[in-house]
Amino acid sequence: MRAGELDRSIVIETPTEAQDDYGGRTPTWATFATVWAKVMPARGRESVAADQVVALADTVFRIYWLSGLTTKMRVSYDGQLYDIAHLAEIGRREGLDLMATLRRA
């Protein structure tokens, strides 16, 4: 993996909870890491969910190895949010491919 290919800054966010003004818990997102990535659009498609057409765009974010990532996290890139669907190790902890899906209603 060449460093020059990692030319886009992405933010990886992890789910967390915050306490609201009334003492209740509110689900929210916190920054896990801000890293450089190579962004590779994979394919686009549409599906039907709840009787509505939903557009899905699959994207692969290639990053250097980062310990602790899970598929419960998401990627924020270029004003869009992507759910991480799968993590694939490159080499022996050299890097990771984050296969992610952009959802738009």
Percentage of residues assigned to helices:
under 10%
Low-pLDDT residue intervals, each spanning 5 or more residues: none
Largest sheet, spatial ordering of strands: 1-2-3-6-5-4
Number of strands: 6
Overall mean pLDDT: 86
Residue share in β-strands? over 45%
Structural class: mainly beta
Question: Largest beta sheet, briefly?
Answer: 6 strands, antiparallel, barrel
Q: What is the CA-atom radius of gyration, in angstroms?
A: 15 Å
Distance linking N and C termini: 35 Å
Tertiary shape: elongated
What order do the helices and strands come in, and which of them pair?
Blueprint: E1 8-19, E2 25-49, E3 52-64, E4 74-77, E5 80-90, E6 95-104
Antiparallel strand pairs: 1-2, 1-4, 2-3, 3-6, 4-5, 5-6
Task: Give a description of the structure.
The protein has 105 residues and is mainly β. Helices cover 0% and strands 71% of the residues. The chain has strands at 8-19, 25-49, 52-64, 74-77, 80-90, 95-104. It is elongated.
Brief write-up:
This protein is mostly beta strands. It has no helices and six strands.
Which tags fit this structure?
mainly beta, 6-stranded antiparallel beta barrel, 105 residues, 0% helix, 6 strands, single chain, elongated
